[in-house]
Amino acid sequence: MTTPSAPSAPAPPVPDHVPPELVHPLDQWNGPDYLADPVGYWDGVRERFRVFYSPHHGGFWCLTRYDDVHEAFQRTDLFSNRFVNIPGRPVRLLPISLDPPEHTKYRRLLNKPFSPMQIERLKARIRELAGSLTEVAGSLERFDFMDVFAARLPTQVFLQILGLPLDAEQRFLEWNYVIIHVQGGAEADARQKQANDDLGAYLTAAVAERACSPRSDLISELLPSEIDGRPLEPAEAVDMVYLLFMAGLDTVIAALAWCWRYLAEHPEQRARILEQPALIPDAVEELLRYYSFLQPTRTVTRDLEFAGVHMRAGDRLMLTPGSVGRDRRHFPHAGEVAFDRSANRHIAFGAGPHRCLGSHLARAELVIAMDEWHKRIPHYRIPEGETVRFHGGAVTGPDYLPLERLPA
Ligand code: HEM
């Protein structure tokens, strides 16, 4: 949920309050060194720097260690979300682009629909959707996991929650791709603007329709809510649903892909979940810790000292679950994937007031998907000669994950 930027131009000059020895050119959108191995990249910088400054994409500080990142997530007075935005849509993403106490007023409206109890009610439907997608994959010998499963399940679940028709899936897949992944140049900007306009129009119509005739879905549940004693405006409901789209699709897509890539490359670990499916929730948690692929950004609110450096008001700051998930100062044997890890307090879902609203939903999708898939497709691998391709950005993840089924 940071701003996608155009491919890196030559790095601009570094501001004079940044010590030269703390400059390190991370480009998490396009940097070949980052994209070649996002996991190893974080391991490398974390051991070299507690904090560093990258001149790319307008320049930003980057914290690398658990305690600092965890504290920064809590300190909304020092590190603001006000400037979280996306191109082509310079509006509020509610509630993520607000700081407390404004943030709390909107967030509380969404807490109930995403509570564990509500998600429990959705599980049977998620299982049905995951089951049918796996059936289709099971009829193919070779496939791109992204196309047949990873992109489709979260999109279908999103449509289900909002009460939107399943046949809108292709449009949502396209909007997700264009808005989040297309970048660089005037043509990309125009495509993004168009996709944003189309999605905005679609959601505005869905909100208007439910304002006239409520149904049993999330939008209808939101509309009668109040903010400060006045009715929630339809435009605010659109901004909230828009955020759910931005936050709830690409993240689960990436999580599924990271998990499946790991399981394809580690048959011995896959065998453990096949023998003992009750391990799946812990396996999901551990893979979320290990990969923690979403790096949010903040804006520094005033001149201050943090993590031993001087930051100025208006500086940008990246918080890095991707680095801190494997910080050995916090997690014993941080570099190992251990499905039976105890006290796995990762921050893949963030921390503090903006902690992921959809974490219960995301976990349900991942656990059910892993269970349904492995009942039907227990053996698979990345075909020889094929290479997984990654995209960078606020969310880093595979965007091509070729798999082939193997005989039992
Ligand atoms: C594995 C999947 C997911 C991961 C790793 C993830 C991660 C995160 C993180 C790190 C944040 C904090 C952002 C910040 O501090 O600026 C966040 C916030 C958020 N997430 Fe998720 N997320 C996932 C899935 C979902 C899903 C499925 C939804 C809902 C459909 C969702 C909705 C949100 C919302 C609305 C926020 C903003 C909360 C606020 O500002 O109060 N996320 N997520």
Description:
The protein is built from 16 helices and 14 strands. It has helices at residues 32-36, 38-48, 66-74, 102-111, 116-138, 145-150, 152-162, 169-181, 185-212, 218-222, 234-248, 250-265, 267-275, 280-291, 321-324, 359-376, and strands at 51-54, 60-63, 79-80, 142-144, 226-227, 230-231, 297-300, 304-306, 309-311, 316-318, 380-381, 389-391, 397-400, 402-405. The strands form 5 sheets. It has a 5-stranded mixed beta sheet with strand order 1-2-10-7-3. Bound molecules: protoporphyrin IX containing FE.
Main β-sheet description: 5 strands, mixed
Span from first to last CA? 41 Å
In N-to-C order, the SSE pattern is: HHEEHEHHEHHHHHEEHHHHEEEEHHEEEE
Overall residue-averaged pLDDT value: 94
Our Rg estimate from Cα atoms comes to: 21 Å
Count of individual beta strands: 14
| Secondary structural class | alpha+beta
What spatial order of strands do you see in the largest sheet? 1-2-10-7-3
Summarize the structure.
Helix content is 48%, strand content 11%. With 408 residues, the chain is α+β, with helices and mostly antiparallel strands. The N terminus is likely disordered.
Layout of strands and helices, then pairs:
Elements: H1 32-36, H2 38-48, E1 51-54, E2 60-63, H3 66-74, E3 79-80, H4 102-111, H5 116-138, E4 142-144, H6 145-150, H7 152-162, H8 169-181, H9 185-212, H10 218-222, E5 226-227, E6 230-231, H11 234-248, H12 250-265, H13 267-275, H14 280-291, E7 297-300, E8 304-306, E9 309-311, E10 316-318, H15 321-324, H16 359-376, E11 380-381, E12 389-391, E13 397-400, E14 402-405
Protoporphyrin IX containing FE (HEM) binds at residues 1, 81, 95-96, 107, 243-244, 247-248, 251-252, 255, 294, 296, 321, 348-350, 354, 356-358, 361-362.
